[in-house]
Specification:
30% of the residues lie in helices and 11% in strands. The protein is of the alpha/beta class. The protein has two domains: 358 residues, Rossmann fold (3-Layer(aba) Sandwich); 56 residues, no CATH class.
Length: 466
């Protein structure tokens, strides 16, 4: 009886009065349904780094091509001098290999317009060569794989709409395929692909998306093309795949330095197979920290933060905020940042979502790999396109093109597209100029640079902050 009276007394003492604040509702955690997933997910959703999260993609929308690239591509250019890149009397025949950058990924997809504005196509125009053939999507299916556009949000953290009209078809058979490309191919760029895909006998069992994209080229081989100049943009997609999928990053991981740790040099058979004594260019690897993708969710937005992660067990790793680290963007990180922006932040993550100080060091391309790329270029007489230096300078701010255009590498700037990884059309033009500079410098060539301001004006590119 005494216990009962005591309990009633406690209840009475704890009744809210007029001075009590109203309870603050907690925002419910959104869990996407199967219907949500069906609405926004498709076979190409992984091209965009956030495309696999239905809660991040709000609507399906229709869009028409915005740029007038055909008009610019039809503009005549001064005759180029290729220097010692060609033997006397040779005509230029260029072939390109690489990942998403070379394939024309933009805004988390590949479209006819993003292919036309690809740096290799712009380079071919400035070279004055008319035999370079991009494997363009047909005019009816101009939106290709579909793509994503930023939408305004109250929090400032990104969400996207997905463009779905006039896209290519995908067969329901196994394995799935997309329409076969008919015509000459000079650009063999492939998202998450590389030169390996075009070596006879090579195959990949667990590469569903690159396999689907490569089905356009089924039965076709670069060996059909008598090319004498090669573009090799080989390593960046591998680096990005590595930081997104490796639980404990180490120097011997294949994505980060693994192929050079044993021999001390680049020995990739596939590159040598396609190179075979030809002249060309090869790209260094930029730091992923210089991408908007890795800066969407800055920890500077919080009063303080405490982050743990599951290294070998549960919450047994702790982030040291005094040392460099990165967070892989996910729907979970997005939800937490929205909820706690401007306040204290405390959370535990899976190891794969966190790149701590040691992993940051091991995955730095400047640690080993870029030096080995330069050594390989010297050995093979290749020009070096220093994307590492370009992206770093753009990230630091204040970078201007030779004709004075300010390049903005932030989230809504003019260099990177809405996927936060691959460039806009203007960014592709800037990269094309870096390729031209590298060729001119290394081979004593005289290829005219793109007038970036004129390119933007003629193609109707709109950008601010100039």
């Amino acid at each position: 009886m005494k216990k009962m009276l005591f309990l009633l007394a406690l209840i009475g003492c704890n009744q809210p009065g007029n001075g009590w604040p109203d309870p603050v509702p907690i925002k419910p955690v959104y869990i996407p349904t199967a219907e949500d997933s069906a609405k926004v997910l498709g076979p190409f959703s992984r091209i965009h780094p956030m495309g696999k999260y239905p809660e991040m993609i709000k609507d399906n929308v229709n869009r028409q091509p915005e740029l007038k690239i055909e008009e610019w591509l039809s503009t005549p250019v001064p005759l180029a001098d290729f220097g010692r890149a060609l033997k006397p009397g040779q005509a230029m025949e260029m072939a390109a290999f690489g990942g998403g950058l070379t394939a024309g990924v933009m805004n988390g997809g590949i479209t006819r317009q993003s292919q036309q504005t690809n740096y290799t196509n712009l380079l071919a125009h400035q070279m004055g060569i008319t035999n370079f053939a991009m494997p363009l999507f047909d005019k009816e299916h101009f939106n290709g794989t579909g793509y994503y556009i930023y939408r305004d949000t109250e929090s400032g953290y990104p969400n996207w709409d997905r463009v779905i009209n006039n896209t290519i078809s995908v067969t329901t058979e196994s394995p799935s395929t997309i329409p076969l490309y008919q015509g000459k191919i000079s650009n063999y760029g492939l998202f998450e692909g590389s030169t390996e895909w075009y070596v006879p006998g090579w195959g990949c069992e667990n590469c569903d998306l690159p396999t689907l994209l490569a089905s356009r080229f089924k039965g076709r081989s670069p060996d059909e093309l008598p090319y004498n100049f090669i573009v090799i943009e080989e390593f960046f997609d591998r680096w990005m795949f590595g930081i997104q999928t490796t639980r404990q990053i180490g120097g011997f991981d294949y994505s980060f330095n693994g192929s050079i740790m044993d021999s001390g040099r680049i020995t990739d058979y596939s590159i040598n197979y396609h190179l075979r004594g030809k002249k060309g260019v090869i790209f260094t690897i930029p730091r992923y920290q210089d991408l908007p993708y890795m800066n969407w969710y800055s920890m500077k937005e919080f009063q303080n933060a405490y982050i743990t992660f599951d290294r070998n067990g549960t919450a047994d790793g702790v982030i040291d905020f005094l040392k460099p680290f990165s967070m892989i963007p996910t729907a979970k990180l997005h939800a937490l940042c929205e909820r706690f922006k401007g306040r204290a932040f405390s959370a535990n993550f899976d190891d794969i979502e966190v790149i701590d100080y040691g992993e940051t060091y091991e995955s730095d391309p400047q640690l080993f790999y870029n030096a080995k790329i330069r050594e390989y270029a010297t050995e093979k007489d290749l020009a070096v396109v220093d994307l590492f230096d370009l992206y770093q300078r753009i990230h630091q701010g204040g970078y201007r093109t030779d004709d004075g255009i300010l390049i903005d590498g932030t989230e809504h700037g003019n260099f990177f597209s809405s996927d936060g990884i691959y460039p806009t059309a203007l960014g592709q033009a800037v990269i094309a100029n870096e390729v031209i500079k590298a060729i001119n410098r290394h081979y004593g060539a005289k290829i005219p640079l793109i007038d970036i301001a004129g390119f933007a004006e003629k193609t109707r590119i709109v950008f601010a902050n100039q």
